[in-house]
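User: Quick sanity check before I run a bigger batch. Here is a single chain. Can you write out its predicted 3D structure?
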Amino acid sequence: MPSEIDTGLGIQDSGEGKPGATATFPYDRLTVERFRAAFPRARWRDDLRAWFVPGTTAERRLNRWLGRELSTVLAYADEKGRDAFSFDPIESAYLEAAEDLRIRTPYSRTIVDELRAIPWAWWDSDTKSWRVPFRSLEELRRRWPAIESAARRNEPEERQKRRDARKGSSKHDEMAARAVERRRRRYPIPVEALPPLDRTVMTPQHGAVIFTDIAGELVEESVLVSFYPDVETADGSLVWGSWRKPTHDELVKAWPSRSPASEVELKRGWWQPTLMELRDERRRARSIERAQATRRLKKQEP
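Assistant: Done. Predicted structure follows.
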């Protein structure tokens, strides 16, 4: 089973059914050299962007090594980052320096993606802020222009200005039509390549979905051209399939494909997800389900 240790270093199964575990950590030459000395059979996996250590006891050995090796390294890195921040701070209304760096911004997918890419950054639901240790200061500094720009764009006043400017425009009408189409929860499916029902598959428009029913109603050409231009079929016959988004638990249980989608699978509009695609979908589903749970709790408060 996947696990996370308190150093922020990820350990998980290789995804190939082979005994072993993978470890990920920010690149540092000396740390890599010590890692290779401790695990001479370890090899780098480009597909997982991680080190793979074979053996049935690999996870236990990795946890023990990481706890011993990185505690001193990380403490030194935090001290070094704190000194660098004191000398050259990031001045922003969205950032507060405490025992670590805390970031509060309006919601933005761009911001979430940027912060997730920063080593050891994590969302603290208690303080409603992203927390970044000082050891990750340089990576945060590199990504900060994009984060702050996205935060300003997503301030309520700026979003309202853009909505007002779009009203009555062709782009606004197109966005409204797409929203209406999405709420219908339907998707065109080639008759000669029907997806399995009640199983997680990927689509280009909606990401991971589970098809719940396939009707015999044919897809109108005008709707296909307007909203689903990526879907193709050999004989031109497409029918509507009803779909829903999978839960986080369903995504965890979904069986990944060992190879990316082929050109044929992409053209038909659905394919079995890879492990990397499933990981992205799991993160999104977990965030959505946490937000939904928070909203339910707020409604129950007196």
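Residues 189 and 238 are 5 Å apart (CA to CA).

User: Great, the batch can go ahead then.
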